Amino acid sequence: MNADQVNADEADARVRCSWALSGGPNIGEAYVEYHDNVWGVPERDPLVLFEFLVLEGAQAGLSWSTILRKLDTYRSAYRGFDPEVVAAFGEHDVARLLADEGIVRNRAKVDASIRNARAWLELDDPVAHLWGFVDGVVVQNEWATMSEVPAETLTSQAMSKDLKRRGFSFVGPTICYAFMQATGMVNDHVSTCFRHAECRALA
How far is 122 from 108, CA to CA, in rounded Å? Predict the structure, then answer.
């Protein structure tokens, strides 16, 4: 077993991507849960897709464990990530969010989340639009190790360019690729991870 093949505990012999156990203290179990049940699952629910778009932007410069620790508070603060609700946020809401210790209190990221909600509503069909970058079909990758997984691709670059043109922000190509990985537009579980085959079957 190499560094990209790890088990959650002695009672669970299933092999996982190495990052699944990198969450750190007090988040390890939630990190494994996220890896096993969320990351890489093809997602076509518009509210969930919008949530991921906001959270991946919020993560910029931080670790995903930071966002995962704050997930419940984020969902409450952003009213369930309903883009119509978020798009209507005003200065009072911005002040509320910036005072909320349960989220990343960064003015640029908060402003971007509201701007992105408004841009989201301008899309005729956000789900079809985003999935259109992979022609509606999950990209099935075959990585032997996590070191082979790219930080961005030509597809994520195209998505980033398109979304920026439409008024979105905090949607650089690396953020877009993380979004694609999380929402299962690409299957980037290493080939030895038990979730690789399971996510392939879900496509």
Answer: 21
152 is catalytic: no
Q: How confident is the model at residue 3 (pLDDT cuts 50, 70, 90)?
A: very low
For 30, 118, 191, the CA distances from 33, given in Å and listed in that order, are 5, 32, 19
Element (H, E) at 187: strand 186-187
64 is catalytic: yes
CB 139 within 8 A of CB 184: no
Among residues 39, 64, 131, 143, which one is catalytic?
64
Beta strands in the chain (DSSP E): 139-140, 186-187
pTM: 0.92
Q: Enumerate the β-bridge partners of residue 96.
A: none
- Domains belonging to the chain, first-starting first, are 46-193 (1.10.340.30)
Catalytically annotated residue among 56, 131, 143, 177: 56
Tell me the C-alpha distance between 61 and 153, whole Å. 19
Hey, is 102 helix, strand or coil?
A: coil
How far apart CA 117 and CA 197 sit, in angstroms, is 34
Express each pLDDT in 126-159 by its tens digit: 999 999 999 999 999 999 999 999 999 999 999 9
Enclosing H/E stretch for 140: strand 139-140
pLDDT in tens, 28-76: 888 899 999 999 999 999 999 999 999 999 999 998 988 999 999 999 9
Q: CA-CA distance, 128 to 147, in Å (whole number)?
A: 31
